[in-house]
């Protein structure tokens, strides 16, 4: 005979597992420290300045 399960409890367990998976994805996407964000912004600014400095005078921006 099959084991009897509580469907309400099974839904709660499944929802909890989905929430944990979603939290793990969010930690990867948004879980950077303030220092890491600042370093990435500084690197982006430096790269932009370096690229702009190497442009020739006749170059037109391609917006």
Overview of the molecule:
Pfam families: DUF4169. This is DUF4169 domain-containing protein. InterPro entries: DUF4169. By secondary structure, the protein is mainly α. It has two helices and no strands. The longest helix has 24 residues. 0% of the residues are buried. The model has no long low-confidence stretch (mean pLDDT 89).
Structural class based on helices, strands and sheet pairing: mainly alpha
What sort of overall outline do the alpha carbons produce when their principal axes are compared?
rod-shaped
Number of helices: 2
Strand content: under 5%
Radius of gyration: 25 Å
Q: pLDDT average, as an integer?
A: 89
Give me the strand/helix succession.
Answer: HH
> Would you count the extended β strands for me?
0
* Low-confidence runs: none
What is the end-to-end distance?
69 Å
Major β-sheet annotation: none
Query: How helix-rich are the residues, as a percent range?
Result: 55-70%
Quick take:
The protein is an all-alpha fold and 63 residues long. It is 70% helix and 0% strand.
Q: Which features does this protein show?
A:
single chain, 63 residues, mainly alpha, 2 helices, 70% helix, rod-shaped
């Amino acid at each position: 005979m099959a084991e009897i399960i509580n469907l309400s409890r099974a839904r709660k367990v499944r929802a909890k597992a989905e929430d944990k998976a979603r939290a793990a994805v969010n930690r990867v996407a948004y879980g950077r420290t303030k220092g890491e964000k600042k370093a990435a912004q500084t690197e982006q600014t430096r790269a932009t300045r370096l690229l702009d400095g190497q442009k020739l005078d006749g170059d037109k921006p391609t917006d």
